[in-house]
Amino acid sequence: MNLGALFSGGKDSTMAAYWAVKNGHKIVCLITLISESSESYMFHVPNIEWTKYQAEAMNIPQIMKKTKGEKEEELKDLKNALIQAIKKYKIEGITAGALASNYQKKRIEKICHELNIECIAPYWNYGDEKYMHEIVENNFEVIITSVSAEGLTPDILGKKIDHDLIEKLKKIRQKNRININGEGGEYETFVLDCPLFRKRLVLRDFFIQKDSNSASLVIQKLETKPQNI
Prior knowledge:
The protein has 229 residues and is of the alpha/beta class. It has 6 helices and 9 strands; from the N terminus they run βαβαβαβαβαβαβββ. It folds into 2 domains: 2-120, HUPs (Rossmann fold); 134-226, putative n-type atp pyrophosphatase, domain 2, CATH 3.90.1490. A 5-stranded parallel beta sheet has the order 3-2-1-4-5, with helices on both faces. Strands 7-6-9-8 form a 4-stranded antiparallel beta sheet. Helix 3 (73-89) crosses helix 4 (102-115).
């Protein structure tokens, strides 16, 4: 089946697209919504503009649309983006990185039903520890790009998700009751490499931005490198 991937640049949307390819589907386009509001209920915000480098690394065309990020209204922008993907790339469905958020999943499914396309969320209620280790085992290179939960400190920004970091997140969960997969908005991520990439991305420059309740790694420069270097 020809699919579009709802794509934010983070681990979950990329893992969903990878699952689809592994299971015989073809990702024919990436669909990215750029929210003007950091309070968007639907769309990932940090470093979203850098997804164009990931699209280039995968050699997959990308539809990028802006949205004001207003609750419910942003769904109209998503629907318009999907209509464009249906017309331009003949998609029969989409992948979504939803893990446990009923708010997001139900709204995406409703739009897909209206457009008569399928919605595939392969890691829905998958099991957080199993899912996190699967990211590592599938050779994903993923960095933490924002933290916004008690117990998560700025020192993990830029750290790669590996088995050691997963154990650290599990220890923090014991005290602070976070979701270790970040589904509650505890942290955000950016994928530098994975099996879908024909080139890998290298982070060359960034700065850390802090406020009273959160901190973000703001990408300023990325480079693409051949996989064998």
